[in-house]
Design brief:
By secondary structure, this protein is an alpha+beta fold. It has helices at about 1-15, 30-35, 40-45, 50-55, 65-75, 80-85, 90-95, 175-180, 185-190, 195-200, 210-220, 225-230, 235-240, 325-335, and strands at about 60-65, 100, 115, 120-125, 130, 135-145, 145-150, 205-210, 245, 260, 265-270, 275, 280-290, 290-295. It has a 7-stranded mixed beta sheet. A 7-stranded mixed beta sheet has the order 9-8-14-13-12-11-10. Strand 4 (about 120-125) and strand 5 (about 130) form a beta hairpin.
Length: about 350
C-alpha cells in the first residue's frame, strides 16, 4: 500500500509541479519549437525530415529529451551536436522516442513495453518514479492537438545504434556504376552488349572500370566515335576482358601476377610503379559491392581476340553523360573497367 501511494505521489508531482506552460492548442512540433529547451531536438527533427510526419494527425506519444539530455549524450559519446545531426542513424534514434497512439501517464504500468516507430520496444519502470528504459520522465502529459509529450532527462538510444557504423555497401557492381556519371560510356557499352544482367548476378566479380576519360582517350587514338565503338560486333569481348571471376582486392595482387578474364584472355599486373593492369593505371581501388569489387582504370583494356570492324554510324547512341542513359546503361561501367590500349585492326 505504501509503495502504491509513493507511486501515485510521483505521478502527481510529475503532472502538477514545475510544469512549463505549454499550449494544448498546438501540435507536438509547435510545442517543441516554442520551447528553447528543445532546440537540439527541433534541429534533429528538421535534419531527419521528420517535422512533417510529427505534424500529422497522429495521435503520437513523444518522449522528448531536453537540451541537457542531448548534451549528456554528446559528452558520453565524445561527439559534437553537428556529429550527431549528421549521423546516418539519426532518424532511427528519433523514431525510438515516438510511440503510435496517445499514451498518458495514467496508462502506464510497471514493466510494460511499447513498440516505437523505429521498430524497437521501450520499457516502462515505475519502481522509483517513472522511467522509460533508464531515462527519467521529468514532466508528463504535455497535451498537444495530435498527441502527448513526456519530457525525459536522457536520450533514448536504440540497441542497433552504432557510433561509427560501417558504410553501406552497394548491392552490386552495377549499382556503383549507376551512381557515378563518370561511367556513362561504360554503362552505355554494357547495355549495348546485354551484360547488365550478368553483372547484377551473385558473382563475385572483379571489374576494372574505365572512366569516360579513358574511353575518350581511346576514341581519339582510333579516330572513331562512341557510336562506332558501341556498335562493334565484338564489343562484349572488350567488356568481358575487364571482368575477373572472384573478388580480387588490391592486397591480393603481386607483381607479374596474371588473372584470367571472362573474355578467356588473361590480364597482367605490374606493381613496379603504382598499380597497372596491362598498360592501364589503377586510379581508385577496392570499391566494394555486395557481389564483388571495382578498380577504376585510366585506359580501356583491349584483348587480342578483338578485331575492329568498320560499321555504319548510328545516331541512336547516347552521348557521354547523357541524361537519357538508363540505370542499366550505367551498369556497363563495371564490365568495361580495365587497362590497355586498343589497337585498331581493320578486317
Amino acid at each position: 500500500m505504501k509503495r502504491l501511494m509513493s507511486l501515485l505521489m510521483s505521478l502527481v508531482l510529475l503532472i502538477g509541479i514545475g510544469v512549463p506552460a505549454f499550449s494544448a492548442d498546438q501540435d507536438i512540433v509547435e510545442i517543441a519549437v516554442g520551447n528553447e529547451d528543445f532546440s537540439i531536438l527541433v534541429a534533429a527533427l528538421q535534419k531527419a525530415e521528420l517535422v512533417g510526419a510529427l505534424q500529422g494527425e497522429g495521435p503520437f506519444t513523444v518522449f522528448a529529451p531536453t537540451n541537457a539530455a542531448f548534451e549528456k549524450l554528446l559528452a558520453s559519446l565524445g561527439i559534437t551536436a553537428e556529429d550527431l545531426l549528421n549521423h546516418p542513424q539519426l532518424k532511427e534514434v528519433l523514431l525510438y522516442h515516438v510511440v503510435s497512439g496517445k499514451v498518458l501517464s495514467t496508462d502506464l504500468s510497471n514493466g510494460m513495453t511499447a513498440p516505437t516507430l523505429s521498430g524497437e520496444n521501450i520499457k516502462v519502470d515505475l519502481s522509483s518514479g517513472v522511467k522509460i528504459n533508464t531515462s527519467s520522465v521529468t514532466t508528463a502529459d504535455v497535451m498537444a492537438t495530435n498527441g502527448v509529450i513526456h519530457i525525459i532527462d536522457s536520450v533514448l538510444v536504440p540497441s542497433t545504434f552504432k557510433l561509427n557504423p560501417e558504410p553501406e555497401v552497394p548491392a552490386t557492381v552495377v549499382d556503383i556504376a549507376l551512381s557515378n556519371s563518370d561511367f556513362s560510356i561504360l554503362v552505355a557499352a554494357l547495355q549495348k552488349a546485354d551484360l547488365v544482367g550478368a553483372l547484377q548476378g551473385e558473382g563475385p566479380f572483379t571489374v576494372f572500370a574505365p572512366t569516360n576519360a579513358a574511353f575518350e582517350k581511346l576514341l581519339a587514338a582510333l579516330n572513331i566515335s562512341a557510336s562506332d565503338l558501341l556498335n562493334q560486333p565484338d564489343l562484349a569481348k572488350v567488356l568481358l576482358y575487364h571482368v575477373v571471376s572472384g573478388k580480387v582486392m588490391s592486397t591480393d595482387l603481386s607483381n607479374g601476377l596474371e588473372a584470367a578474364t571472362l573474355n578467356g584472355e588473361a590480364v597482367k599486373f605490374d606493381l613496379s610503379s603504382g598499380v597497372k593492369v596491362n598498360q592501364s593505371g589503377v586510379t581508385a581501388a577496392d570499391i566494394e559491392a555486395g557481389n564483388g569489387v571495382i578498380h577504376v582504370i585510366d585506359t580501356v583494356l583491349v584483348p587480342q581476340n578483338f578485331t575492329y570492324q568498320a560499321v555504319e554510324d548510328h545516331n541512336d547512341i547516347p552521348k557521354t553523360g547523357s541524361a537519357g542513359l538508363t540505370p542499366f546503361v550505367i551498369a556497363g561501367i563495371m564490365t568495361l573497367a580495365g587497362a590497355g590500349m586498343m589497337r585498331k585492326r581493320m578486317k
